[in-house]
Amino acid sequence: MDLLLYLLGGCIAGFLAGVLGIGGGLVIVPFLSIALPLSGIAPELTMHMAIGTAAAVIICTASLSAYSHYRHQGLEWPMLYDLLPGLLLGALIGGLIGNFLSGILLKIIFAFFVIFMALKMGFNLSLHDRSTLPSKKITFLICSIMGSLCAMLGMGGGVFIIPFLRSCQLKMLKAVGIAAACAVPVSIISTLSYIVGGFNNAHLPAWSLGYVYLPALLGCALASMCMVPLGAKLAHRLPAALLQKVFAIFLFVVAVNMLFF
Fold it and tell me: pLDDT band for position 244 (50/70/90)?
């Protein structure tokens, strides 16, 4: 039953990863925060293991999503290279910080940042109106913050990167493709940090690699990778405005679920 549950969560996460370029963390973290206790995971370990496992799953889903968008000419390589330095440094810092925060605090931070991004996307709010990225220093600073939050909260980065790129007037599909590509290295750093951070925890369950729970990783990753191509294909057939509204509604629902359930 546990494996079937993880397969179901992986299917949903993979489909949304392909459609929205989010890597799946926004689905997998809340999903695992509910599913892991059903597998006997101690409550005090649940949030850290949900984040660590989600980050590992995102390596798989984001890689496939990025490749699918690449095949549809959905990647802007120069812009991708501008974003990566700040994202990678931020991911390294955020992964280290996340291991020292309580599970409840991680959950609250996760939910409130998602609500902010949902409102920003849903109402098309922009901090600036430009057709290119800000200066290299500002871009590096913004990306460092985004990378830190992504690694800390087990997200690939789409929840932050897509609204940021949209505020730079980048087309939605291009933003989705770049977010998927950025999620791969960010998630690798995040996963490694949660593996190392939980390695010596004496209360970890069997089949754990630090804070990564391998049965959940296997089930979610296999199912999600089957669904990513379908989601990516659908993304290139949907109107960009509709895609953005769906993304915003999805973020808001996830955040409310995290805060109150």
Answer: low
Contact 159, 22 (CB under 8 A): yes
pLDDT of residue 129: 47
For the chain, the domains span: 2-260
Burial of 110 (0-12, 13-18, 19+ CB in 10 A): buried
The residue with tokens 């500002």 is: 138
- What's the CA gap between 105 and 145, in Å, rounded? 18
**Torsions phi, psi of 171, nearest 5?**
-60, 150
How much is the pLDDT for 75?
Answer: 75
What pLDDT does 90 receive?
A: 92
Which tokens in the block code for residue 140? 């590096």
Burial zone of 105 (CB within 10 Å; 0-12 exposed, 13-18 middle, 19+ buried): exposed
Q: Residue 84 half-sphere exposure, CB side, CA atoms within 13 Å? A: 14
Separation between Cα atoms, residue 189 and residue 230, nearest integer Å: 27
| Amino acid 22: pLDDT | 63
Distance between CA atoms of 197 and 183, rounded to whole angstroms?
21
Please state the pTM of the whole predicted model: 0.80
Amino acid at 177: G
